[in-house]
Specification:
The complex is a heterodimer of chains A (about 300) and B (about 280). Chain A is built from 14 helices and two strands; from the N terminus they run ααββαααααααααααα. Chain A has a single domain, classed as MetI-like (MetI-like fold). A two-stranded antiparallel sheet of chain A has the order 1-2. Chain A has about 300 residues and is mainly alpha-helical. Chain B has about 280 residues and is mostly helical. The N and C termini of chain B lie far apart (about 55 Å). Classes of the chains: A mainly alpha (about 300), B mainly alpha (about 280). At the A-B interface, helix 1, helix 2, helix 5, helix 6 and helix 7 of A face helix 1, helix 4, helix 6, helix 7 and helix 9 of B.
Chain lengths: ~300, ~280
Amino acid sequence: MKTSKITRFMDRHMKIIYMTPCILFLIVMVVFPLLYTFRLSFFDWGMSTVAEPEFIGLKNYSELLHDQYFISSIWITLKYSLISVILEVLIGIILALMLNRRKLFMRNVFKTVMLIPMSMTPVAVGMIWKLLMDPSIGLFNYGLKLMGLPASEWIFGSTTVICSLIMIDVWEWSPMVALIVLAGLSGIDEDIYEAATMDGAGYLQKTFRITLPLSLNVILVAALLRLIDALKTFDIIYSTTQGGPAFQSQTINIYSYLYGFQYYKYGYASASMILFLMLVLVVTGIVMYIRTKVVVDR
Amino acid sequence: MSRQTKLHSGTACKGKRAGSTFLFYLLLAGVVIVTVFPFVFMILASFKTTVEIQNPSRFLNFTFITSNYTEVFERFSFAKPIWNSFYVAFMTTVISLVIALPAAYAISKFKMHRMSAGILVTRMIPGICFLLPWFKIFSAMGLTDTYTSLILSYMLVAVPFIIWIMVPHFENLPQDLEQAAMIDGCSQNMIFVRIMLPLSVPGIITAALMSFINAWNNFLFALALSGYQTKTLPMAVYNFIGYAKISWGPLMAAATIITGPIVLLSLIMQKYVVSGMTAGAVKG
C-alpha cells in the first residue's frame, strides 16, 4: 500500500504538527501578555488613550512597597490562604477517613454530596453566604440569637471579615481535599492493614502509623493545589465584600483588579500583578520544596 | 464460667460498637447537612418572596411562590445570559479539546516532560496578570464584547487543564497497540484518531466536563471582558448587587438557575467529575 506524500510528511513531523496549535495559543495568550504586563509595570500609564505610556523605571514598585494598603494586602492574602488551606487539609483528611470506613452505608451518595460545594458557581455561592451572613436579615445571626449568643457582623465587620471568608472557603473546598485524599487512601494495599491487625494494632494506630504516612504525598499535592487556588481567590471575595470593609479583605488579587479596572492606573496595577505573581511562585515553591524533602526522606 | 464471661464481653463489645457506629453516622449526617445547607437554602429562598427571605424565622414555613423565576426572565431578561454562558462554555470546551488533545498525545508519546511542566506552570499564574494586555489586544482587534474574546480567555484555563488530565491518561495506554497498528500500515494520524482517542473516551469526558464547568463558572475574565451583548450568567447574577436595594427573591432564583444545571451535571457524571477534581494528585 502506497502512502500519500501528505501522510508521510505528517508522520515525519508529527511532533511539531501536534504541538503547534497549542504552542501558538500559549504564546499569544500567555507568554506575550505576561511580557506585556511586565513591561507595563515600568511605565506610568492611565486611562487616557491620547497620552503615551511614560517610562518611569522602578517607581511603580517603590510606590507599591510604600503603600500601606498594598503591604497589608500581602498579609491578608497570606493569612487568608494559609489558614484556609491548613483547615481544609485537616478537615479534608478527617472527611476522607470517614468516607474510607469499611462497609460504609451509601458511600457513593456521600461522595456525590461532597461535589456540591465545589461545582456551585462561586458568584452564586458568594451571594448565598452574603445573605446568610447579613447582620440584620441573615439566618446566622438569627441562629445565634436563638442560642442566646451575641450577634456577629460576619463579612460586614472589619475584624470578622477574614474569618468569615475563610469559613466560606473551608466549606467550599474541604470536600475537594477529602476526595483527593480518599482517592489516595484507596490505593493503599489491604494486606498492610491485615498484617497490622494481626499484630494487634488499633484503629488509631493504623491511622497514624499506616494510613496517614502512606498518603502523605497525596495530602501534600492536595494542599499544594488548594494553596495555588487560595492565593488567587477572587470570585468569592469580590462578589461578597469587594475588598471591604475598611480594606480588611483586600487581597493582592482584589487590590490589583481595583487599580487596573476601577482606577485605571495600568502601570501601577501591572507592577502589583507582577509582585502578586512572584508571591504565588515563591509560596508554592516553598511548599514544593518541603514536599520533596518530606517525601524523599521517607 | 469462662464461657459466660466470654459471652458477656462479646455483647458489651457489640453494644459499644453499635454506639460508635451510631455516633459515626450522626457525625456524617452533620457533615452532609453543613455541606448541602447553602444549596438547599438557596433553592428554598428562590420560592419565597423577598419579604419572607428577609425574615429568618420563616426559613421553613413560607408561602410557596414561583414568581421569582418569571421575574428573572421578564424583568432581568435572563434568557440571553443563559444562552451566552452555554455557548461560550460549549465552544471553549470544543476548541480547547481540539487544541489540547493532540498536544497531550504528543507530550506523552515523545515524553516531553519539560514542555508539560511548562504548560502546567500556567495554572499557577494568576489570571489577572493577563487581563490588561488581553483587554488591549482585544480592543485593538475590535473584539471587545464578542464571544471570541471570552472563548479565547476561558481557553487559558481549559487548555492546560485538559493537558494535565490527558497526559497521564495517554501514558497509561498500552504501547503494543500502537506498534501493532503501525505494522498494519496505519499512519500516525490514524493511530491517534482511530485507536488512541476512542480508548481515551473516559478521560476525554472528564476533561470536557471540567472545561465546561470552569468556563460556565468563570467570573474574573467575564467581569473584565464581557459587555452588554456577551453578558454571561455570573455577570448577570453579580449585577443584582448593583441595584440600590437587592431583590433577594429573584437573586436566589437566578443563583438556582446558574448553579442548578451545573450541580445536576456533576451529580449525574459523578465518577468523571471526581476523577477530574483529583486528577494529577493521585498519580503523582
